[in-house]
Each structure stands twice: as C-alpha cells, then as structure tokens.
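Entry 14. Structure prediction run on the chain below.
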Amino acid sequence: MFKLFMLSLAAFLDGITTVMNRLTSILLVFVLLTLAACSTPPAVKPPTVTQPKPIAPVKPGRPPTLSELVGKYSLFAGSEISFDLRQQGDKLIVAAAGNTSELTQLSPTRFKLAGGREVIFDYSVEGKYDRFVTTYGGRQQRFVRDESLAKSRRGITKQAVYNWQLANAIKPGHYTHSRFISPSRGLVDYSVYLPQEWRRESKKTYPLVIFLHGQSGWEHSFSEAVPATQLNQWMARGLIPPMVVVALRSGRIGADGKTEEQWSTPRNEAMLTSEKPNELRAFIRQQFRAGMSAKTTSIHGHSRGSRGAIHYALKFPQSFASAVANAFVSDYALPETLQIATQNQQRLRTQGIPLRISIGDRDEFALKMGCKASPIIHKYLSNLHIPHQYQVFQGVDHSFVKLWNVPLRNGMPNGLSELQFHAGAWIR
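Output returned:
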C-alpha cells in the first residue's frame, strides 16, 4: 500500500514538473516578446508627397540693366548678413556692415568689389535677375534679393510638397537642404546628413544628432564646418556608428521679423522636445528613421547654440541622450541657466544626461568682451555635484571649425571625440 502511494506521489510530482516547465517556457516567450515590443521603434506612417506644379523656366531675353540689380540681398530670409545695392549714375554701389564700396563692372552680369572679389549675378526660374554669387567667409555663397526670399517662403504651404522635393534631392553620404512646417514654429529650414548606407526602402533605424548654430548662423553652419566626407570616413573606419545629423535654422521674431530667436524660447522648446505626431521628432522619424526615442537623440550646439544645448540638457534631460556645448559665451543667459540647474539639481545628479562643455582659451568673446559663461557654468554645476565634462583648448578661438578639428592629446580630432561621446550615451 505504501509503495502504491509513493508511485502515485511520484507520478503527481512528475506532472507538476511538466506543467511548470511548460509555464516557464511560455513565460520566457512572453518576456522575450515584451522586450522585443519595447525595443521595436515606434511605427511611423510613410511620408505623404505631392509633386508641385511644374514651372517652365524663363530665360531673360536681354542682359540686366543696373536699375534691375538694385535691392537688398541676403544670405537667407531675416539674415544679418546682407548687401544693399544702390545705383549712383552709371555705377552700382554696395553697402554692407556700415561700409560702402563701388562695384566695377566687368560684364553685364559680372562685377568686382574693391578688394578684388567678384560678384556674379544670375536669374531665377522666372527670368528675374535677383541673386548673385560671391566669396564670403572663405567660401562661395549665394545671396538672394529679399523680396524673392520672402516669396519663396510663402510659395509652398504644404509639407507634402517639401517631402516630394526632399525625396528627389536626397543623397546618402551628403547633406541635403529642405524645409519642415512645425506646428509650433512655422516654416523651419534644415540641412540633413544621412550615412552612406541609408536607403529609403530599408527599415533600419539610426541615432540622431540635432545641431543648433550660433548667432548669425544658419542650417548650413554644420555642413560648412564638417565635410560629409569626414563623417563618411569616420563611419567607414568604425570610429563612430552610422548616424543622422539634422542642423536647424533658428527662427526670426520681432516687428520686423529679423530678430534672431533664442533656442530656448517656448516655441523652440515645443518644436525640439514634443512627441506630437506633426512635430520635428515625428517628422525626422518618418522621413529618416532617426532618433526613434530620446535614448538615441542627442543635441549639439555652438556659441548661442551651445546655450541651447545646455538649456535642454538641464531642463529636459528626459528628452535627450547627451549634449555637447561648444564655446558657451552667452553671459546674459546665465541667470536663467543657473536657476534651471538649481531647480533640477536633484534629478540631474541621478538622472541627468552626459554633458560636455568646451571652449578655446583664445575665444575672442572671452578675451575682448569678458564673457565668462563657460567657466561659470562649469564651477556652478561642479558645486551642485551635477556630472559633466569641461575642456579648455589651448590656442583655439571661437571658431566652430577650429573647435571641431583641434587635436586631443591622443591625436584624435575633438569633433570625432564629441560624436563618440554622443554614441556612448546611445548604448547606456
């Protein structure tokens, strides 16, 4: 009888073991599926595109007269960098930054400035001579008459049209310029770098770096300083992972629409941090499959843009993975910045994001104007025990190009080190 009882008990225990094993397997599958769901990027709808109505280009039937070239020409709408062309008799006079100079005519569309730089006029698709090319800041730049710039920004009101233009212009391994209509800020010009391996039909996702330019900068400030070939080479050598870089143009405010907007304004905060379907982050995910979460989205700024990067690192650490601030000299922003650090210090000590601040010891804003924002914020964050890195580069001025390329002790360009800094945060 006892033997029969033991046999029954053994059979019962074997049954229990079998059931538990099955439950364990089911639970394991459930956990794996849950983890997979959590790591799967959010589903995004494919971008809608609308082809704009084709415009037949018009070729002018004759060379321009001097009076047709008169006007104000700017690098972009609202830019502080502009030229005012006036006619005096049979001469063209150019005024810029408080100085005037006579243009020597070489041909109907070619002129020469007093310093030797050439100014070459060209016409729009409508056949109007409303733009010229000249060397500015060491590179060829195109300046367009203000009326034409304003008309261009008013001309397209549907994001789908910009999407169509983007789809036809985009080239992986290069920079592409386009526009995004933000519910918070309106029309926003941007430049995007896509890695060479990026393909429209692929489902692979990428980390994202959002770049904020300094005062008088624009969406091309990053691409003018960082050649796409440099990024391509670093990725090909495995020094940094493939990533997407989006550089934005700051807004313009004020009665005349020409006052450069701070990156920390409420509408910029909404544009840069919102998870709403039609805002910047959703747009970038939809178009480029990048920055699929805050954990793979970093922010990087220079000069006034560095103030923005620090602002978002201290106020919105939950929205970014890391932040780099180059040449922070915005002393006027210190009261607000220090207040944010004080208010959020407890959270920043335990849940803050990696933050790197750097400046050159020859920064002209520090030497000539006494700006001390970088050392002050470094000392303040240190006193609050808020983790961050701080670097001062010997012999480097305010230039973003020089800050990007200055070699570290190991010979590595600082820009490469900064991108590796971001990449390290993406795998935390």
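The CA atoms of residues 364 and 370 lie 9 Å apart.
Filed with the rest of this week's runs.
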